[in-house]
Amino acid sequence: MPPRCSAQARACAEAAFRHCYPAYAATSSIDRLRASDYARLDQLGQVYLDYTGGGLYAATQLQKHHELLSSQVFGNPHSTNPTSQAMTHLVEQARAAVLAFLNAPAAEYAVIFTPNASGALRLVGEAYPFRPGGELLLTADNHNSVNGLREFARARGAHFCYAPLRRADLRIDEEHLTQLLGQGQAGAPRLFAYPAQSNFSGVQHALAWIGRAQEQGWDVLLDAAAFAPTNRLDLSRWQPDFVSLSFYKILGYPTGVGALVARRDALARLQRPWFAGGTIAAASVLGDGYVLAAGEAGFEDGTVNYLSLPAVTSGLDYLGRIGIDLVHTRVQCLTSWLLAALGGLRHRNGARLVEIHGPTNEQLRGGTIALTLYDPAGQQADERQVEQRANDWQISLRTGCFCNPGAAETVRGLSAAELAPIFQTAEHLTRERYQQALAGQRLGAVRVSLGLATTFADVDTFLSFVRSYLDRPAEPPSPFVDQ
Ligand SMILES: Cc1ncc(COP(=O)(O)O)c(C=O)c1O
Predict the structure, then answer these.
(1) Which residues have a Cβ under 8 Å from the Cβ of 62 and sit 6 or more positions away?
(2) From 12, 20, 161, 403, the catalytic residue
(3) Dist CA 155 CA 134 (whole Å)
(4) N or C, fewer C-beta in 10 Å, the chain?
(5) Is 116 in the pocket of ligand 1 (CB under 6 A)?
(6) pLDDT value at position 5?
(7) Where are the domains of the chain?
(8) What is the predicted pLDDT for the residue at 205?
(9) Of the candidates 244, 128, 146, 253, which has an alpha carbon nearest to the alpha carbon of residue 190?
(10) Residue 161, H or E segment
């Protein structure tokens, strides 16, 4: 087992932390939950720091769901038989719980259940009325499931462009964004898609952009997948046209359920490319016609993941009883401490150990931190080797570019002129070839992300792990091998 810091050193560090962050004391109810509902973490010696990858469920969330399923009989919803009606009632209850979680008025917003956030994004992409003269504006730190929307725009002749990130802090240059929002044909369909929180850097973009863009004729898609688990999103205050979510990121359980939360008027402007079971009011084979069902039903293809939906309701109820603002406060205190501690680490020769990619304090950022480790000679540690070593410490972190190539390319200062030709070669581009073409530039970083059940001890163990790199020469990078 790798060396961990002594209990006394940890107690001293925690006292110093609590002194610096008095607001943390108000979150002690979460420490009690960690000891009961999340006890398995400490029983198994696991340090979980991948909340942006997926949240963790509380033991009572599972119990509640299993009690419901094992004591009732549920059938496929949307029929009049008793077991179907019982299920329909719970599906509608889950919709209402999602609206309540987002403080979204039911008259204005519809909740469409999807398999995940990507499913929600795809629904918008394939049905948005892109056409020549139309526009898609993206930020460079979008997740690939948002970047992929550009292929729908391209296929239908719409123009797309990216608002770039500043390399220093991975934020968007507001002036540049203002310029981009001012362009495009008035009256043509224009969609602006951005993450409320970057899953790479933790940067939180201004929600005020929503109204500003709409005033200029844009529809706004807010990707809240990385934001919603630890921040309040109030749709009575901020009114994006579309919001994408994955519930496993917010609640840990269930997986396989996401949502597109859409303004009803925006939904009515979408043009679905097909129909499926469950989405139609009427369809005919001989008559060669169909009419889509109104509202959310017209977008839920086939049977929703109905048995999982009551777990969304009870999970949101569980989170509501803790309070999303309390989770936010806790994550903010721990993130701030961690950022300061990482930033202060120096090798004996004075060289920095850690480069943080993104904001180095807690202002306008969430609990996701991307970083690179350097040895005393300034040699970058291979992030895959860092992950291997973290595995030995039972620390769950993530490495790579986290499906967010735009942020990774900005970090490494790569340009379109360098990258575009790589994709124009006739050769099938494998991961290995791509890495070779980057001529030694490593796109990957290390990412830790904090969440509901994170404790000071988790953060402190990670710090001990990082300190174990002090004054150590970097190992030669591992070769890239295509799987
Ligand atoms: C910001 C963001 N958007 C979208 C997604 C895609 O979510 P999913 O894989 O659940 O579809 C993720 C997943 O990490 C994300 O972090």
Answers:
(1) 253
(2) 403
(3) 12
(4) C
(5) yes
(6) 73
(7) 7-56+323-467, 72-321
(8) 98
(9) 128
(10) strand 159-163
| Cα-to-centroid distance, 13 and ligand 1 (Å) | 34
The pLDDT, as a whole number, for residue 426 is 65
What pLDDT does 427 receive? 75
In this prediction, residue 4 carries a pLDDT of 65
CATH of domain 72-321: 3.40.640.10
DSSP 279: S
CA of 119 to the centre of ligand 1 (A): 10
Where does residue 364 fall: left (phi above 0), alpha (psi -120 to 50 degrees), or beta otherwise?
A: left
- Predicted TM-score (pTM) of the model is 0.97
Which atom, in ligand 1's list, is nearest to the CA of 119? 11
DSSP letter (8 states) at residue 444: -
CATH number at 7-56+323-467? 3.90.1150.10
**What pLDDT does 123 receive?**
98
The predicted-structure confidence for 177-216, as pLDDT tens digits, reads as follows 999 999 988 899 999 999 999 999 999 999 999 999 999 9
Among 113, 124, 145, 365, name the best residue to mutate to test ligand 1's pocket (greatest count of ligand atoms within 8 A of Cβ).
145
What pLDDT is attached to residue 434? 82
453 contacts 54 by C-beta, under 8 angstroms: no
User: What is the predicted pLDDT for the residue at 482?
Assistant: 61
195 touches ligand 1 (CB under 6 Å): yes
Output the CA 444–ligand 1 centroid distance in Å: 18
Give pLDDT < 50 ranges for the chain.
none
DSSP string for residues in 415-435: -HHHHHHHHT-SS---HHHHH
Q: Which of 116, 246, 247 to mutate to test the pocket of ligand 1 (most atoms within 8 A of CB)?
A: 246
| Ligand 1 pocket, residue 332 CB under 6 Å | no
Does 455 sit in the ligand 1 pocket, CB within 6 Å?
no
Burial 246-266 (b: 16+ CB within 10 A, else e): bbbbbbbbbbebbbbbbbeeb
Supply the pLDDT for residue 3. 61
In this prediction, residue 267 carries a pLDDT of 97
Q: Is the CB of 226 under 6 A from ligand 1?
A: yes
196 CB within 6 A, ligand 1: no
Known catalytic residue: 403?
A: yes
Cα maximum dimension of the chain: 80
Q: What pLDDT is attached to residue 478? A: 83
pLDDT at 41: 98
Check residue 265 and give its pLDDT: 97
> Closest ligand 1 atom, CA of 258?
10
